[in-house]
Write a sequence for this structure.
């Protein structure tokens, strides 16, 4: 039988490319042990039958699960109306003017979840992350190629320094 450390090690291997594998694998292992004590099978399927706020509270009760992780699980696994805020969502929504300059990611999560129609959460989240990776990068965003520049406060107000047309 494998030791707890060995089982956490087995979890670490496949998640290594995402980084911080030793810490994450220990937390995942601890979470699975906790879940095993509560449920007959190691599954979070029952989450999707819960009311969104209750499901969120339940996930947040596990050590190592923060608001972003909980929101990602609820949106992508259960299709619940949640708008997780990662670094791309925070940057792009700030530039577009959807959130204020000083809005924290936690505040942005509350605001965007409320503001964006439920049926758009899933696809819009994916699209903004892709936009942030490919076009609206942290420095020198590709504003001249941006299909949504006409909706962008930062571009309109010259608050970003776009990549030059010549370097495209
Ligand atoms: S115009 Fe530029 S800053 Fe605005 S969303 Fe597009 S790439 Fe980002």
């Amino acid at each position: 039988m494998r030791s707890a450390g060995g089982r956490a090690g087995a979890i670490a291997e496949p998640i290594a490319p995402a980084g911080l594998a030793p810490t994450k694998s220990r937390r995942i292992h601890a979470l699975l042990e906790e879940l095993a004590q509560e449920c007959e099978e190691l599954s979070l399927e029952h989450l999707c039958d819960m009311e969104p706020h209750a499901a969120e509270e339940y996930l947040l009760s596990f050590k190592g699960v923060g608001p972003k992780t909980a929101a990602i699980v609820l949106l992508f696994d259960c299709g619940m109306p949640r708008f997780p805020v990662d670094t791309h969502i925070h940057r792009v929504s700030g530039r577009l003017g959807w959130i204020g300059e000083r809005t924290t990611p936690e505040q942005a999560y509350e605001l965007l979840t409320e503001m964006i129609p439920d049926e758009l959460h899933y696809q819009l989240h994916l699209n903004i992350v892709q936009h942030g990776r490919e076009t609206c990068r942290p420095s020198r965003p590709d504003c001249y190629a941006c299909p949504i520049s006409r909706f962008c406060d930062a571009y309109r107000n010259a608050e970003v320094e776009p990549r030059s047309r010549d370097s495209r």
Remarks:
- The longest helix spans residues 21-38.
